[in-house]
Design a protein that fits this description.
- The chain is of the alpha+beta class and about 280 residues long.
- It is built from five helices and 15 strands.
- The chain has two domains: about 110 residues, Immunoglobulin-like, CATH 2.60.40; about 160 residues, Roll (C8orf32 fold), CATH 3.10.620.30.
- The strands form three sheets. Strands 1, 2, 3, 4, 5, 14 and 15 form a seven-stranded antiparallel β-sheet that branches. Strands 6, 9, 10, 11, 12 and 13 form a six-stranded antiparallel β-sheet that branches.
- Strand 11 and strand 12 form a beta hairpin.
- The chain starts with a strand and ends with a strand.
């Protein structure tokens, strides 16, 4: 499927903004899962591009204003066209060995209780692991579905700093939390896994446009991975548009920055995804 995508982030400040530096993970890359037909980002400052250590395209910009010319609002607009291929399994050509994604991170830390839960909940997968065999897609979809049952989707129940173990214990969360729990469970049983940020097209549920899912390595030597949407209990398909993949949310959040001045800050995000025909 081909989509037009527009992602606008608008900051409004109660006092003049004197200085701001922002880092953006808002540039999708072409690969096995999608082809980026065109893309651009509009910001109030000059953009500088580079690859981060995990192979994602990152941009940054800064603003410096004198008090008499300070701003009280800024906007960042990312937009373009992407064709998705409906690919759930792929070979990764990124810069890192899959073992890198076994490491513990603040929001997706492996834990023995998660490993024990997996042993009790998905015994077929754990038997496969015990025989040193590669997991199947069906095994991992079953694990994703079990995580979705364990961490019930409820908006407003968690925050961006909620850890996987907290969401696991609270048994509530949103797509970010479900993805973090899935990553942490996989790491707990020795499967490399990473967090993916992106977009999801749902014609009747535009509030789901900003989405998160998981990549799990199913063959380290061949660098083969499978993408799993925990929230929707499936492998990713033509509805998913990838932005960035990293160890957890903190390593690939769409926008983060520092500022001086501005007083109280308000952030409004608007995402539109429109399928194209013909």
């Amino acid at each position: 499927m081909k989509f037009n995508i527009s992602h606008t982030t608008r900051y409004t400040y109660s006092q003049p903004l004197l200085y701001s530096v922002q880092t953006l993970h808002l540039w999708p890359a072409s690969g096995p899962c999608q082809t980026v037909e065109q893309w651009g980002i509009r910001t109030p400052g000059t953009l500088h591009a580079q690859l981060d250590g995990q192979g994602n395209q990152v941009h940054s910009f800064s603003l410096v204003r004198r008090p008499e010319a300070a701003l009280q609002h800024i906007s960042v607009v990312a937009k373009g066209q992407v064709t998705t291929h409906g690919t759930g399994e792929f070979v990764d050509t990124g810069p890192l060995h899959p073992a890198f994604f076994l490491r513990s991170t603040p929001l997706a830390e492996p834990h023995p209780r998660m490993a024990m839960w997996a042993l009790q909940t998905v015994p077929e997968l754990m038997a496969t692991r015990a025989r040193s065999e590669q997991p199947t897609a069906a095994d991992l979809v079953a694990l994703a579905s079990a995580v979705a049952d364990k961490v019930q989707y409820r908006q407003g129940s968690t925050g961006v700093e909620t850890t996987a173990l907290e969401a696991f214990d609270w048994e509530l969360g949103v797509c970010q939390d479900q993805a973090h729990v899935m990553v942490a469970v996989c790491r707990s049983i020795g499967l490399p896994a990473r967090y993916v940020s992106g977009y999801f097209f749902a014609a009747n549920a535009p509030e789901l446009a900003s989405h998160a899912w998981v990549d799990v390595c199913i063959h380290s030597q061949e660098n083969r991975w499978i993408s799993l949407d925990v929230t929707h209990r499936c492998t990713t398909d033509e509805r998913h548009i990838r932005l960035a993949a990293a160890t957890d949310y903190t390593a690939c959040l769409p926008i983060k920055g520092l500022r001086r001045g501005g007083g109280e800050e308000r952030m409004d995000v608007s995402i539109r995804i429109e399928p194209l025909t013909g």
